[in-house]
Amino acid sequence: MARSIFNQKSTASKVSVPPPQTSKIKDWEEFEKFVEANYEQTQKQMAAEWGNCSRFTISRGLKNLVLLVKKTIWLSRKRRTRKRRIYL
Q1: Farthest-apart Cα atoms in the chain, separation
Q2: Would you say residue 6 has pLDDT above 50?
């Protein structure tokens, strides 16, 4: 009796792909105007004001609009002390 290919168990691992999610942000032009008007707020505050979404949704929305987050430039304690040294 010949074995069927379909009855054999595969040793290859299955690829786990999450199902696509629909965005809670439907009107992207309105969201862009909202962000421009509330740019000084944190993502958590923006989510509370936008309603029915989390800060993670706001973060993904900002990423889709290709708006970058401001980065603060800071020096580590080690590098700060190095710059303060005065050599005589």
Answers
A1: 92
A2: yes
20-36 exposure pattern, b = at least 16 Cβ within 10 A, e = fewer: eeeeebeeeeebeebbe
pTM of the model: 0.56
Residue bearing tokens 């900002």: 62
**What would the two tokens of residue 86 be?**
């005065």
Residue 2: band (very low, low, confident or very high) from pLDDT cuts 50, 70, 90:
low
Check pLDDT > 60 for residue 3. Answer: no
At 54, list the tokens. 């989390």
Amino acid at 83: K
Are residues 31 and 25 in contact, defined by beta-carbon separation less than 8 angstroms? yes
CA dist 10 and 43 (Å) reads: 45
Q: Indicate the domain borders of the chain.
A: 25-84
User: Helix or strand or coil: residue 80?
Assistant: helix
